[in-house]
Amino acid sequence: MANNLLKGKKGIIFGALDEKSIAWKVAVRAKEEGAEFVLTNAPIAMRMGEINKLAEQCNAQIIPADATSVEDLENLFTKAQEILGGKIDFILHSIGSSPNIRKGKSYGDLNYEWFQKTLDISGLSFHKIMHVAEKQDALNEWGSVVALSYIAAQRVFPDYTDMSHAKALLESIARNYGYRLGRMKNVRVNTISQSPTKTTAGTGVGGFDAFYDYADKMSPLGNASAEDCANYTISLFSDLTRMVTMQNLMHDGGFSSMGISEDIVDMISK
Ligand code: NAI
């Protein structure tokens, strides 16, 4: 169902790795809604080649950039504006990775160098992206910047280890840069706190299947899918949400307001 919600808008979409990626679904929906954008991901993700399929489907160019490198980001914003022929209206940060989670380190046994990598890739990169956009004056008035977060920023999910701190950092950056870009350019900055979703990053977290099912049974609407998340993201890029900024927006089928559900009670009483 396309309504030209993003007609004439230009964007940069970070983090489409494969068809399961939330960023992939956002790109497909953004195209349907009339946007033009460039796709970007870390050079290592490019080698897997999947993103070429998406680029073809969306008639978009790909510019590799490691989101932790300010130099790569400078190159990305310069080229994106050349390719798109103007300033940027929307940015999606859909980036997350924790070497500690990948290597199975528990919370009490974190490697601190990897911890810093987690924060850099999954949190600080959001600051770097907006910093470069600001320095290049690359954003249009009334633009919209969105990053994806998870409720482990507020509540304890033991297997989410250092990513929970990265998400807390990410949400804090959204508030602080939201203030700054709001004052400067009327640009809004928000995070979407998404349900557990079966993607490469999601399923890499220990015990994922259990907390996917748990969240599904706790939420009156069930877990929000990647497609639902893409739709919500499109609404935030559209002019229908111009006054929403500096928010962490729960997109979780009601999970975050629940104490316990009948389904969970039934499960435990069995
Ligand atoms: P995904 O694995 O498809 O996407 C993660 C992306 O981050 C990949 O494209 C990867 O190449 C990219 N990335 C990693 N290091 C990078 C770097 N240095 N520079 C640039 N890009 C880099 O998984 P998914 O689930 O689509 O993740 C997208 C976002 O959604 C992440 O922020 C994740 O934490 C968040 N999220 C995911 C949930 C889930 O259960 N899957 C739940 C809530 C939030």
From TrEMBL:
NAD(+) binds at G15, S21, I22, I95, K167. Keywords: Fatty acid biosynthesis, Fatty acid metabolism, Lipid biosynthesis, Lipid metabolism, NAD, Oxidoreductase. SUPFAM superfamilies: NAD(P)-binding Rossmann-fold domains. The keyword Electron transport does not apply. The active site is at Y150, Y160. It is an enzyme of class 1 (oxidoreductase). It catalyses: a 2,3-saturated acyl-[ACP] + NAD(+) = a (2E)-enoyl-[ACP] + NADH + H(+). GO terms for biological process: fatty acid biosynthetic process. Its EC number is 1.3.1.9. One of its GO terms (molecular function) is enoyl-[acyl-carrier-protein] reductase (NADH) activity. InterPro entries: Enoyl-ACP_Rdtase_NADH, NAD(P)-bd_dom_sf, SDR_fam. Pathway: Lipid metabolism; fatty acid biosynthesis. Signal peptide: none annotated. Belongs to the short-chain dehydrogenases/reductases (SDR) family. FabI subfamily. This is Enoyl-[acyl-carrier-protein] reductase [NADH]. It comes from Pontibacter mucosus. The lineage of its organism: Bacteria, Pseudomonadati, Bacteroidota, Cytophagia, Cytophagales.
